[in-house]
Specification:
Elements lengths: L4 E5 L4 H12 L4 E5 L4 H9 L7 E3 L4 E3 L3 H18 L13
Parallel strand pairs: 1-2
Antiparallel strand pairs: 1-3, 3-4
GO molecular function, one term: electron transfer activity
Family: Belongs to the ArsC family.
Protein name: Glutaredoxin-like protein NrdH
Length: 98
């Protein structure tokens, strides 16, 4: 399954940790990219006007900075997507028994 949310951050970023904690609490899968380890991505994001971490990217949106309302919407969308792609569990009698 593709992760619906990517968080770009840096180790010293408290808002980045808050976003990660929230995603973990709500059991929303995400990718974390440490921008100190990916200077090429950092430059690309800066060129796009993203100057503050965390930078959150979803399939339909991207923003920089801690924005609780947008994060809430992203989590709701991710959870809805996960619910529609979840595999149904099948239960029933054990057919191998004789």
């Amino acid at each position: 399954m593709n992760t619906p949310i990517t968080v770009y951050g840096q180790p010293s970023c408290q808002p980045c940790r808050l976003v990660q904690r929230r995603l973990d609490r709500d059991q929303v899968p995400y990718d974390y990219v440490d921008l100190t380890q990916h200077p090429d991505k950092l430059e690309q994001l800066r060129d796009a006007g993203m100057t503050q971490t965390p930078i959150i990217e979803t399939p339909t949106d991207r923003w920089s900075g801690l924005d609780p309302d947008r994060l809430n919407r992203a989590i709701e969308h991710a959870q809805a997507d996960m619910a529609t792609t979840a595999q149904p569990s099948v239960t029933g009698p054990d057919l191998d028994r004789t």
